[in-house]
Amino acid sequence: MPFMKKLFRSKKSKRHGFSGTRNFFAENFITNCSQPCRYAEEGCEYLRLKGDNMQPHESQCMFRPIVCLIPNCGEEVPYKSLLSHLTYNHKICGSDLLPASITFHADQPITNNRKWLPFAIQAFGNVFYVMMEVIRPHFWVWVWLQTTKIEDSYESLFITQIMIKNVEKKLRLMWEGPVQSLRTSEKVVMRDGLCFVAHEVFLQHFNSGGYFTFCVDIKKSSRTTVMDLNANVVDERTSAMNTPTHASLTTRSRINSDHSLYDSGILREQERIMEDDENIPNNNLEELADHPNTDSFVSKLSN
Predict the structure, then answer these.
(1) How many domains does the chain have?
(2) Whether residue 173 sits in one domain with residue 117
(3) SIAH-type domain spans which residues (predicted)?
(4) Higher confidence at residue 175 or residue 279?
(5) d(Cα 150, Cα 232) in Å, to the nearest integer?
(6) Residue 90: which pLDDT band, with cuts at 50, 70 and 90?
(7) Which of 3, 53, 124, 252 has the greatest number of beta carbons closer than 10 A?
(8) Stretch 64-77: mean pLDDT
(9) What is the 3-state secondary structure (H, E, C) of 54-105?
């Protein structure tokens, strides 16, 4: 409910926006009259009034227990314990560096459908799982996000680049698109086609001694705000009043020519964001694809 969310944000900040004082009313109200989600310790910040039915939320809570990603395991583990479960029980590999070079072991001819162990990447305070599966005749590679904070599920958008390259044959295949939520099933990922997909006839050219080496990068991009969208809107009813005067045009010209005005503030930040966008694809990803690490992590077949 919006009222509870507003009070909760007030409690988190502990200071009133105008006077800088603590909002004791909000803090006391939340403490005495609200109930948290049962998965609060896993990271959920959802609150409702005491006595309200929490079942609709808790049944769909992002931080509820999750079934292990390994098909033959099927164990339901606490949300925050998934990475440790996969690491200690299934010996998956992982990295905290981006871009990452990931090698999938496929020494035998692929005649049946198969699935590899996930590869974990810890970045941006979250955990990403790089998945690879063969459902003949196609290879599928995608990235799942296990977010540790609820803000990343709606305020930010993670973009991934997945590349495989054969320098000798001058072949390169790259896909760029959104990272998928860990709650999105692999069937939905494949159905929507929002992942790296390649036919086995083409991908055989990238098989090097029974190994497929992919280079994966992940970026975080803030979504456009309402203020940014409204900045370019022209209201025809007030177009005469909004038409720039000679003085405002002169000011704009001075701003465009005087780069010292960009040293701080929003304009410089917007310029930085634009520069970041222009850098895609990342040269580091190309470098890694041209000279993959000999000690790159190897993901074996899933049991």
Answers:
(1) 2
(2) yes
(3) 32-91
(4) 175
(5) 31
(6) very high
(7) 124
(8) 89
(9) CHHHHCCCCCCCEECCCCCCCCEECHHHHHHHHHHHHCCCEECCCCEEEEEE
Kindly compute the dihedral angle of the four CA atoms of residues 65, 68, 72, 75, in this order, to the nearest 10 degrees.
-40
**Which of 18-27, 43-52, 70-79, 114-123 has the highest mean predicted lDDT (pLDDT)?**
114-123
Report yes or no: 131 and 186 within 8 Å, Cβ to Cβ: yes
Give the separation between CA 164 and CA 77, rounded to whole angstroms. 33
Domain coverage including residue 105: 91-222+281-299
Could you tell me if 199 and 292 lie in one domain? yes
CATH number at residue 167: 2.60.210.10
In a domain, 29, yes or no: yes
Closest by CA to 198, choosing from 186, 189, 187, 206, is 206
142 and 285, same domain (yes or no): yes
The token pair at 73 is: 């395991």
48 in Cβ contact with 1 (< 8 Å): yes
**Contact (CB, 8 A) for 214 and 162:** yes
Are 296 and 213 contacting, i.e. CB atoms less than 8 angstroms apart?
yes
Is residue 165 located within the same domain as residue 209?
yes
Better-predicted residue by pLDDT, 292 or 239: 292
Binning pLDDT at 50, 70 and 90, where does residue 5 land?
A: very low
- Within a domain: residue 229? no
